[in-house]
Structures are given as C-alpha cells and as structure tokens.
Amino acid sequence: MCLTLLPTAALAAERPANDAWPEQISSYVLNSVAADIQNETSVKAGQAVEIIRRENLTTPYRWLYRVSDENAIRLLHDYYERDPNPEERDGVGGTHYYYFTANAPGKYDIEFQDVRIGEAFKPDRRVLVYALTVTD
Fold first, then answer.
1. Tell me: the pLDDT tens digits for 28-60?
2. Rounded to an integer, what distance in angstroms lies between the CA atom of residue 93 and that of residue 86?
3. Looking at CB atoms within 10 Å, which of 58, 75, 88, 101 has the fewest?
4. Is there a domain that residue 17 lies in?
C-alpha cells in the first residue's frame, strides 16, 4: 500500500465541473487481491480519499463498494482508465479510481468486493477494507 497526499491540481483533468473539490486527496494504491486486506489511515474532515483498484471491464466482474456511514463518507467521483493497448488486443484491463469525501469526524470503513455484474456483496467472498479515522 502507498499513501500520499496529492494537490487538487493533479486531478484537474478528472475533476467534476459542478462539485466542490477538496484541497488534498489521500491516496491508497492497492493492487493485490490475494487475501483479505485491511488498510488504515487518518484524514481531516473535508479531505478526500482516493482508492485505486485494478479492474478489467472486459470481464463480467466489477468492484462493488459500500461505506459504513453514507452520511459521513460519500463517493465524490470515480473513473476508469484503460491500460495502453497499441496492438488493439481484446481483454485489456485498466485502473479504476474512486474519490470519497470524509465529511464528519469518526471511524468509518469503505469496503470493496469483486462481484459479477448485478450481484450484491457476498458473505463468503473476500472483502478489501479501507478503515478511515476522520478528525476535525
């Protein structure tokens, strides 16, 4: 896992035009799905968290997320960026970027699970947990 603070300007190309954008983004970079994974960090209220997940939109699986408190943590923006494919081959994956805003102090979880399109979270499948402690 890599945790960094990024200036807002670094995300200008993907910034929603009509939404308030936090001054700093805390960035998680996690590419392993080999086991249950828990990551923890602290952020200030009003700061956003970037979670980066590898994904392949050519398969019937997608990352599904849920938050422990939808009033305190909300999805600000997400987008998918396909890997370079100069040979135009089928089945090329990419990276999905998720930006969540932490609005209120407390301890919260953002959970991700790789599920088939149309499915809900399944109790028997591995869950990636991002634990946030939000401070004033």
1. 444 333 334 557 888 889 888 888 888 999 999
2. 13
3. 88
4. no
